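Re-running Phosphomannomutase to confirm reproducibility after the cluster update. Everything else is unchanged from the original entry.
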Amino acid sequence: MRDLSGIVKAYDVRGLVGEQLDTDVVRDLGAAFARLVGGPAVVIGHDMRDSSPGFAAAFAEGVNAQGVDAVSIGLASTDMLYFASGKLNLPGAMFTASHNPAAYNGIKLCRAGAAPVGQDSGLTEIREMVEQGVPEFLGARGSLSERTLLVEYAAYLRDLVDLSGIRPLKIAVDAGNGMGGYTVPEVFNGLPIEVVPMYFELDGNFPNHEANPLDPKNIVDLQAKVREIGADAGIAFDGDADRCFVVDANGDPVSPSAITALVAVRELAKEPGGTIIHNLITSKGVPEIVAEHGGKPVRTRVGHSFIKQTMAETGAIFGGEHSAHYYFRDFWRADTGMLAAMHVLAALGEQDKPLAEITREFARYAASGEINSTVDDQAGRLAAIKAAYGGRDGVTLDELDGLTIELPDGAWFNLRASNTEPLLRLNIEAKDAEAVAALRDEVLAIVRG
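Result of re-run:
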């Protein structure tokens, strides 16, 4: 019996091409997905990795073998696949390994209307079906058709955020040789925005740097380019362009929490009193700012399936994560880095202040960023932290996702285990950088001790 435990993750399928993921496995995953979601069709997109077109074709074969039609949209960003799923009201499959190195590929799955498929909402059943052998379908095969949606996707985004009347802007955009190089030219076509492209050539071998803008080393080129050309801002996309990372005119990074707060305020201006979702690792400045602008902040666990589920339950208009995923009710509650970037450019272009001044009010505290520690006994280290801090006066503790501890001076940290690796992930926020460093050293001494 096959064992897919190494590639079926909490939110998607991800593995090494040839070793863990091949066309036979992908074909069976397509068949299992078709049985899970039923007809009439499944929409399929893929990124620019060398293996992606072949995998997308194999997946379509598996779907067709179960009597379900397949609609190929070809090259796509992940949020473009979500757009297709929403517009066509069909389940979808996106072939990408996001920001992972070139040797990897994977599949992000959704139900009709871009509803998430994760471990608790279908992935476990798909894995079990493939491991045990997908039942043969004896009826007529489904058909394969092709559809191009790039122009419609871009027009839909431009309807949500009107950039036509902003002041002229010069923006450096680093696509990291990923799918932003495909979507950005169409989205910004005809707008008063001069896009200075960086690494727009689609290349799944990532010859310039990894397509992971949350790692500081991968935005060094963008920071230098912004300063060199006197750009108003810089935007970096990850490999499948569902996340965006922003730097201001000085080349300084703007935290995803500040972007979350900025977009939340804009969305609340359109819909006063609306609900805004933020995960528990975003800055506590986010719920403060949401409440100050008349919105209702709701805190969730980390991960797109939890965000999307809570958005559906609460009718939230927007949600943001510390990892630069941004979710919009008007985009089928799916995450789209492009739409978040457009909000930032609208906020910048609707007045004359520089981005650093605009975002300053949304960045109230100092943060550590995510610090990973390799540990064999994750549960034991978490228990040691709980014991060390739990008995202190004025300390509050919750275990919604990992362990979150808030100290009497307002500083807090979250320590949580990775879903896929032997890692503990630490995030800290405090009043200033010195306080963050002191708390970091104290916590890591226990975690790594």
